[in-house]
């Protein structure tokens, strides 16, 4: 699914009105109808509804929602906030329609002191500002936002299109914004809905289809995307009947050190469960038995060092390196100086795309000159702290996203920034957000599992872009299946591996 800017959404709106054709008033009726359907499905008519409406079309949606709720027997009040003396035409038309049918449902607010008393358990609908917000909320309207946010603990707040005050395409981190439990957004994600800095404002996000014209949606180029099951089905390559283990590649995993062999085992097991043909693990002496017993399907070579690895480059002469389709490096590796030196030598000798994670990233942070030596097309998988250590801190998530994308382009790498919506920046400037996964995956070892999956997919011959998009999706999906079976609390990185099979079966 493409992510559109506020300007593109306005174009999509206008295109639909011209080409469907449909009047703007009917399109508003359709958008509000989708929200009303959602509300009927989630709350019964016993709860009073207060719909806070701005003077633009977001407020127009709110006025229609109030009328549709009244039609179904809900007790709905449209609280119109007169932040401007001029209402949009569709707002005005829907105000008149509500006034005609349900005059008692209109309540005008001109100042904070007009704010109504809400009975316990009310539903608050925030239809104040949507994609038309052009500047931070100021003056007495700030007081309204604070009132609504104070009420959030005791009432359910549902934002229409965007929580009011949130800019669709830029950071609103220091601005007053309504805090919603649920956001019902139209047709496509807006960038702001995917940013961690807005998590407390958006709550759970639902994308409701309002039938914007498919020609506009398919023909309009977008830089930002959200991946979905349909896209994964075009990437996934089912196995051919005459395939053998050589078909699916031989991967080398360089991982583990004293006290961190678990990371290596998790990564190896994930790699094996994600379909690698053959796996060799390079571990320090202390990891030999651990790996042989915990991952018997993998071969194991040991470093001369006891507690950490420092010689993994040695088996990678040009003649020997060709046997490995890819290398996954980093989980539990440690950051010893000798390990960093071996990583430098490995990057001199191995030219194909690799997966770089965890301590290999921390080594990059300590020796930034290594970044430019990573083979083009490689996959980097930092979490936010690792990202910051390597690429520096930023003032907000939008700035971080730009930094991410710019570095992916400059270094010609795929950089996957882990989070609720993992952001995958591509060398061509495109960014894909992954929507699978859940907070149960914020647990030790979850990242090591991702490294194993990505290594397996590269080994099987998936192109780097396909591998990183499919790998992130499968990782999150396996996590969702694990959470459904065991709960987000009880699931572990091991259970994510156990659920990789069911995740593949869903593709
Ligand atoms: N696109 C679609 O697919 C569809 C879109 N639809 C809906 O339309 C919404 C977009 O509507 P929109 O363009 O009228 O903008 P909206 O968000 O109501 O705000 C404009 C109002 O806010 C004002 N204003 C702005 N900033 C302000 C501030 N800081 N403080 C105070 N005032 C401020 C501005 O006033 P002005 O700048 O003129 O002073 C104006 O009055 C969209 O989110 C969706 O809900 C659906 O109905 C149909 C399908
Ligand atoms: K809103």
TrEMBL record:
Domain of life: Bacteria
UniProt remark on cofactor binding: Binds 1 potassium ion per subunit.
Co-factor requirement: Mg(2+); K(+)
Residue ranges occupied by any YjeF N-terminal domain in the UniProt entry: 9-218
Domain YjeF C-terminal positions: 228-507
Binding locations of (6S)-NADPHX: 57-61, 130-136, 161, 263, 332, 383, 448
GO MF assignments: ADP-dependent NAD(P)H-hydrate dehydratase activity; ATP binding; metal ion binding; NAD(P)HX epimerase activity
UniProt keyword annotation of NAD present: yes
Gene3D superfamilies in alphabetical order: 3.40.1190.20, YjeF N-terminal domain (3.40.50.10260)
Record: residues binding AMP: 418-422, 447
Signal peptide location: none
Reaction(s) catalysed (UniProt annotation): (6S)-NADPHX + ADP = AMP + phosphate + NADPH + H(+); (6S)-NADHX + ADP = AMP + phosphate + NADH + H(+); (6R)-NADPHX = (6S)-NADPHX; (6R)-NADHX = (6S)-NADHX
Keyword NADP recorded: yes
Record key words, sorted: ATP-binding, Isomerase, Lyase, Metal-binding, Multifunctional enzyme, NAD, NADP, Nucleotide-binding, Potassium
Biological processes per GO annotation: metabolite repair; nicotinamide nucleotide metabolic process
PROSITE patterns: YJEF_C_2, YJEF_C_3, YJEF_N
Residues annotated as binding K(+): 58, 126, 164
EC number: 4.2.1.136, 5.1.99.6
Function: Bifunctional enzyme that catalyzes the epimerization of the S- and R-forms of NAD(P)HX and the dehydration of the S-form of NAD(P)HX at the expense of ADP, which is converted to AMP. This allows the repair of both epimers of NAD(P)HX, a damaged form of NAD(P)H that is a result of enzymatic or heat-dependent hydration.
Quaternary structure, from the entry: Homotetramer.
Family: Belongs to the NnrE/AIBP family.
Protein name, entry field: Bifunctional NAD(P)H-hydrate repair enzyme
Organism: Chitinophaga japonensis
């Amino acid at each position: 699914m493409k992510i559109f800017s506020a300007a593109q959404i306005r174009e999509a709106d206008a295109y639909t009105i011209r080409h469907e054709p449909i009047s703007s008033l009917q399109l508003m009726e359709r958008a509000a109808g989708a929200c009303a359907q959602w509300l009927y499905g989630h709350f019964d008519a016993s709860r009073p509804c207060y719909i806070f409406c701005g003077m633009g079309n977001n407020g127009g949606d709110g006025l229609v929602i109030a009328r549709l709720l009244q039609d179904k027997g809900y007790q709905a009040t449209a609280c119109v906030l007169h932040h401007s003396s001029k209402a949009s035409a569709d707002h005005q038309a829907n105000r008149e329609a509500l006034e005609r049918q349900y005059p008692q449902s209109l309540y005008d607010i001109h100042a904070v002191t007009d704010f109504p008393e809400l009975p316990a358990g009310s539903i608050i609908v925030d239809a104040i500002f949507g994609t038309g917000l052009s500047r931070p909320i100021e003056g007495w309207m700030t007081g309204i936002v604070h009132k609504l946010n104070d009420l959030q603990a005791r009432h359910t707040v549902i934002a229409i299109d965007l929580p009011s005050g949130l800019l669709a395409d830029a950071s609103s981190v220091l601005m007053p914004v309504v805090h919603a439990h649920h956001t019902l957004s139209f047709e496509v994600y807006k960038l702001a809905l995917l940013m961690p800095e807005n998590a407390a404002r958006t709550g759970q996000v639902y994308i409701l289809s309002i039938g914007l014209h498919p020609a506009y949606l398919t023909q309009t180029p977008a830089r930002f995307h959200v991946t979905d099951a349909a896209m994964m089905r075009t990437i996934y390559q089912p196995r051919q009947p005459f395939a053998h283990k050589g078909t699916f590649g031989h991967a080398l995993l360089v991982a583990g050190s004293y006290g961190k062999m678990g990371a290596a085992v998790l990564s190896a097991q994930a790699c094996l469960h994600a379909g690698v043909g053959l796996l060799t693990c390079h571990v320090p002496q202390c990891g030999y038995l651990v790996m042989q017993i915990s991952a018997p399907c993998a071969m194991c070579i040991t470093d001369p060092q006891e507690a950490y690895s420092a010689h993994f480059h040695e088996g990678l002469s040009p003649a020997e390196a060709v046997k490995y389709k890819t290398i996954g490096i980093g989980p539990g590796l440690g950051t010893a100086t000798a390990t960093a030196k071996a990583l430098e030598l490995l990057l001199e000798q191995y030219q194909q795309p690799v997966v770089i994670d965890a301590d290999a990233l921390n080594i990059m942070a300590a020796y930034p000159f290594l970044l430019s030596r990573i083979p083009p097309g490689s996959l980097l998988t930092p979490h936010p702290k690792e990202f910051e250590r390597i690429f520096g801190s930023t003032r907000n998530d939008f700035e971080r996203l730009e930094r991410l994308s710019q570095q992916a382009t400059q270094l010609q790498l795929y950089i996957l920034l882990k989070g609720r919506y993992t952001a995958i920046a591509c060398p061509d400037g495109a960014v894909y957000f992954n929507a699978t996964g859940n907070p149960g995956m914020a647990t030790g070892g979850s990242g090591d599992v991702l490294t194993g999956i990505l290594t397996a997919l590269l080994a099987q011959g998936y192109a780097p872009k396909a591998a990183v998009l499919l790998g992130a999706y499968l990782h999150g999906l396996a996590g969702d299946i694990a959470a459904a079976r065991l709960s987000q609390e009880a699931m572990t990185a091991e259970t994510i591996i156990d659920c990789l099979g069911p995740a593949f079966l869903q593709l």
